[in-house]
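Run folding on both entries below.
>entry_1
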Amino acid sequence: MTHKPFHITTVLFDPEGPLAAVAAGRWAPRAAAKRMVATLRARGLGVGVASRHPKKALLDFMNQAFQMRPADIRPCISLGAPRAGCRRRNAFQTTAKNTRTAPQRYMVVSADRDVLALAKDAGSVAVEWCTNGTPDSSAAVSDYRAGDFNQLRRLIRMGSPLPAGKLPNDLLKEFLGEFTFADPALLISPGVGEDIAAVDVAREEVLVLKSDPITFATDAIGQYAVLVNANDIATAGALPRWLLTTLLFPVGSTPSCIWSVVCELMEFCRKWGITLCGGHTEITDAVTRPVVCGMMAGSVRKRDLIDKRRMRPGDRVLLTKGAAVEGTAIIARELGARLRTLGMRAEEIRSCRAFLDRISIIPEAQQAARSPGTSAMHDVTEGGIATALEELSAAGGCGLRVDIDRIPVFPETRSICRLLGVHPLGLIGSGSLLICCRSKHADRLEGDLRRAGVQVTCIGEVAEKGSGVRGFKSGRPARWPRFEVDEIARLFAKADNG
């Protein structure tokens, strides 16, 4: 099953192969093809043709075989025979532009590799029709292959828009059937008709719970959902174990879009030893882009539970990595074209997009949990480091003294913030971990983290009992930055309003 999301509105067939067999020099339509074309038209999908044969031959065949008039065939693309040494315009791109349709909305089904290569170059979904054996897989001219109409029908369904409501049960059953649930503590696994999950926690002393939605990102949303929730579990010194998700998709989303998110959730759950226990999937007009709401549970022995109320004056405040790791990745992935327009180089944007690989704080949290001096941990999320330090102070019941100049900001993050007019300390920052540690253990913990390949900086210390953050620059008091909303929310609102 493919992981690639795609959304189609038109299926273009090359008649020779998918729709017809050649008999006595003529095209003989396949009976199954007639049913396929009728079904596509009934569903409101466009049916077109794309072939190297002349346009008149294509129109005549579609009229005779499927009673489709020229006005019903949208579009009809005659590519002509390729000529050596002649670079021709891409007919799929030209037709899409003339009809004000994105070429990505075309699915092109053909046995002709020249046709498929042009379709794929245009960004269309290319499906190789291959009933006569398995073609050479080294020549990647298509996105998918189909050997019969059942396979093709399934591919088309994966790319067709879904109406509002729950994910259809047959798709849910198919999706869940691709996974195994091997955790012996999981007593009731996900399934059609199962509205709950059950886990055995008899051997655990403390169950740690966490819930967080992912609303800013669309690209890699499954990865964000797993790690943002798992990060909070890890800050308690617990092991992330079980995840429930509610997936909300806008009306018109395709099964392939949903499947790609499910696969991403499973991939990153597997990477971190987490079991995806179940949840709910719905297509709804309540959202305009995908939303993943996660609920994570973890376990820890009672004596190893890290409670922020253990903080006390004199503890050092450490920060791993730097400001706005997550925000840097999201902005580069969601607003890459805008950054390019503002002058950021393509390689810089790629570097920023790769910050996504840094948003887990599980390894450093586990390292810190093993230190006898760790008194508190807090991961940086919405509101950035400025808000996270205030939250840490409030939860621990102690004020914090922070040297603003010592808070690391990656050069890539500075570039993005400068171009878009946002403040790095108020930008969403999963991937950075705040650690409070007894001063006598802090040097060793910093050394252990660095040896493990984790960048860490001492940015301040725990002050008197109470709450609040006092900022300093060059040893002098400085205004502590505060943000009513996360800088990324302000940025996206500004972009939506033009």
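>entry_2
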Amino acid sequence: MGRKAGILIAVYAAVLAINIDVTIVNVALPSVAGELGAGTRGLQWVVDGYNLAFAGLVLAAGGVSDRYGRRPALLIGLLGFAAASVAGALVHDTGALVAARVVMGAFAALIFPTTLSIISNTFTDRRQRAAALGGWGAVVGVGVAAGPVTGGALLTYFYWGSVFLALAPLALVAAGLAFALVPESRDPGTPPLDRRGLLLSAALLTLLVYTVIEAPARGWGGAATLLGLGGSAVLAVAFVAAERAAAHPMLDVRLFADRRFSAASGAVAVTFFALAGFIFLITQYFQVVRGYGTLSTGARILPVAISIAGASVAGGALAPRLGTRALVVSGLIMFGAAMVWIAASAVDIPYWQTIVPQMVLMGLGMGLISTPATESILQVLPPARAGVGSAVNDATRELGSTLGVAVVGSVFSSVFGHRLAAGAFARTGHLAEAQDSVAVTFRLAGGDTTLVDAAQRAFMAALHTGCYVVGGLCFAAAAAGLFALPGRRFVAAARPDPAPKAAEHQPA
């Protein structure tokens, strides 16, 4: 048990390193906007450059780690992530920062499925695995919690690039622990990389995210937007057809015929769609609208992060007893209710009396979803192919995060720009400049109470619309989960291991 505890320490350290990045970057967005001149779309790309590379490569990375070794994959991922973080801290324009974020996402894609795969192969007993996954989910929550506070403290005393520079030492520590504590394991029988599937999936995600992020500027009904959405649909059909025809597909789309597997994957995607969209907006609300400093903003996001961590542990313990359906549906309803509650809030709502309960409700809901849904996904595949199952979980998570920032950010941008055009800013001569960036809008407003009021009204109208979109999606997912998610008595059907038993190598 001591050896297993050591493995968990190393894996959790790796998970912490890449999850701090999620919220440490969001807290830095207003600073990046001011220092690099990034507008709302530029900020979306700073976040989604990372998410896009992660989502596009994580499926292939899961297979690579299974085939060539989970320990070296984890080490290469952590070392590359550290190097890319340093590069991101040294750039001087938005485009270069987005490029660095893409590289960080590529290496993170190599790390994340490997951590779940190591857990699945180390803990074969369901209760032990559920507990280990609960800890994994809690570390994700700790990363979400530590990111804003760490980023806020760094930005209080140092320049904006310090939030990226600080990730490098943590990744290097995680690499040292992995080198010392994690044993080698691999499945040489894992098929070779599906290059056609990788190219099609990357093209699909890139075109879809690009189209959605650029839609507010080009018009949702414009020719470029419609062509982009149509092209994405064509690529999606081509990807499914290619994977069904491939002898060794990157993603076995037949897995989604199991409604329990597909529903659990959908729940993960919806959850991270909601969280990423919320974090993207709330950091700007705290810093730009309410005028809080970076450290104060980071501290104010702690309730949602702590709630996620606590509920993730509880979800891991309760899943074998209550079943995935009860927990995930309850979590989705709680998350949706929190979003609708936020959508009914005024610009100056009190923090402790209203915002904290909203974030706690949201965090508890997410915690109840994440661990049980992840465990349900991992039950479908045998331990030797755990990299594939964990990669599907990570892909749905990152796909949800990517689309959350793209869709919610674009809906926000559209409503915000429309409201500004209908208000006092239309007479200032700076409307186009204001519509491009929230930070610029409030800077242009200065001390003019009429303009400040117009900016606040536009921001809150856009925030409310984004929250209604997220809340509606959560409620729809909860309704689907009632019919599709596994209940308490569900036991996954045994699936034959495609590789011979002797092929799996893991030292004692």
